[in-house]
Structure formats: structure tokens, C-alpha cells
């Protein structure tokens, strides 16, 4: 079946349909309730959950299961298709020269993700470089340098320079030999005006092919505002969800994807440079419903 690791109450509601070839209204209602419960506890935004359950309900009651398909498999297929529709396929990332800008709040995992992505591109045969423009967070320079050393990828930063725009410009020049440039930026604890002004300036200087929003999987309803502000400022073309090795399910990413009209590019699954995966809808959706 398309979904594994479903939560136990959703699974038992679905299992009650075993052997049935048609669904009655009570069956659909029970399943919808379980799905809503799972998604809300995975931090998916309320209006998204409501829209999604309305589409699932409409299809589950309106569509006849194809011949030979049980009611259970039919409804499971609908749930999966509707969620894939919402979350989308992985962000398209051509394996060619490009500049990627990372944005996000402090602690979301930008620096770690920059090094991880550089490692990922290097394994694909490209020559990446990380440019560290975070002059705000003490330790960001050393952390990025050490992680890039571990990832065996080029690194540029300047601990004596406090103008991130200048570092970005100098960094692109200094790493001319690289083909993939990953520009890490400073975050703040909250969405402050100076953060947005700074990232707008960096964006216009480096002219990235895509800007990715880095989000902690534990982010709940705050995802919407962050996604909107960064999207308005620099245009978000994809999302990186970090810390999925923890207990959070990452439902905030769906909100961000929906808000920015983008998709998920990468998942962060640990603290070391290799702990990165390309997004794939099946595993992520199973986790949301789990
Ligand atoms: P930044 O302020 O956005 O640059 O965030 P950092 O890259 O410094 O990450 C903040 C903290 O989260 C650090 O302690 C990282 O080691 C940790 N971190 C980042 N990504 C992951 C992840 O995927 N899993 C886990 N467990 N920790 C992560």
C-alpha cells in the first residue's frame, strides 16, 4: 500500500472497512475525524486541515471504488492523493551550476543545512562552496567552517568583516572555482525589520537561482507568518525541514509550502553533515498521519 506507519487509531478505523466494497457516511466521518486529529497534532494549520478533509470527504463519498479495489484501499488512495497534491513533489534541483540562498530564523538549522546541502551536491559530483554571511550569531563562522571541513567542501567567511553583503560579494568572487554556491545568512530570534532588510540586500547582491526557507520541524502555527515575510522579501522557491530526527512531525512545512506556492527540497535528519535526505512525499505523509 502507498502509506506505511499510519497512526494506530487511523489504521484501526481503516481496518474496520476490511472486506467492505462500499463506504457508508459513518465510515467516512470516522476516518475524516482520525485524519484531522493526526494532522492537527502534527502541527498542520487548521484551515489546511479543514480544506483537505472537505476534499477527502467529497471524493470518498462521491467516487465509486474502481472494480476490484476494496473500500479501505480506495479511501487510503484518496487520502494519499489529496496530501500529495498539497505537499507536492520534491523541489526540482538541477545538478548544475547554481546559487542557493538560505533564509530562516536563528536556530532553524541554516548553517547546518548549508554544509549538509554542500555535502549532498558534492556526492552528486558537483563542486559546492558555502559562503557564511552570518555576522550576527557568535560562533556561526567557526561552526560553518568546521562542518564544511567535515563535508570536505569549500568554505568562505570573514570573521573580521561585519557587513554581510560585502562578505557575500567577496565570497562569490573567492569561490569562483565552485559550481554550486550556497549562501548562508543570519537569522534573528523573531522576524525583525533589520533581518528582512539585510536578507533583501544579500539577495539582490548574490542574485540566487533559488532561495530556500529553512524551518525547524517543531514550528507550529508560526510557519505561516515566517513563510509569508520571507517570500515577500526574497521569493521562496523551496523549503528545508530540519530536525526530523526528533519527535516533531513537520506539519508546519505544509503551511509554508502552501503559503509560498513552493515545495519541500530537503529534510534534515540529524546533526552531522550526512544527515540530509531529498524530500519524498510518501515517507513524509506517512509521518504526518502517523
Ligand atoms: P542557524 O542558526 O539557523 O544557522 O541554526 P544551526 O544550523 O546552528 O542549528 C541550530 C541547532 O540545531 C544546532 O545545534 C544544530 O546542530 C541543530 N540542528 C540543525 N539541523 C538539525 C537536524 O536535522 N537534526 C538535529 N537533531 N539537530 C539539528
Automatic annotation (TrEMBL):
This protein's encoding gene: srp54
Binding site for GTP: 104-111, 184-188, 242-245
Span of domain Signal recognition particle SRP54 helical bundle: 2-87
Subunit structure: Part of the signal recognition particle protein translocation system, which is composed of SRP and FtsY. Archaeal SRP consists of a 7S RNA molecule of 300 nucleotides and two protein subunits: SRP54 and SRP19.
Domain notes: Composed of three domains: the N-terminal N domain, which is responsible for interactions with the ribosome, the central G domain, which binds GTP, and the C-terminal M domain, which binds the RNA and the signal sequence of the RNC.
Reaction(s) catalysed by this chain's protein: GTP + H2O = GDP + phosphate + H(+)
GO CC, alphabetical: signal recognition particle
Keywords linked to the UniProt accession: Cytoplasm, GTP-binding, Hydrolase, Nucleotide-binding, Ribonucleoprotein, RNA-binding, Signal recognition particle
Positions of the AAA+ ATPase domain: 96-280
Subcellular location per the Swiss-Prot or TrEMBL entry: Cytoplasm
Protein's name in the database: Signal recognition particle 54 kDa protein
A single MF term (Gene Ontology): GTP binding
Taxonomic lineage: Archaea, Methanobacteriati, Methanobacteriota, Stenosarchaea group, Halobacteria
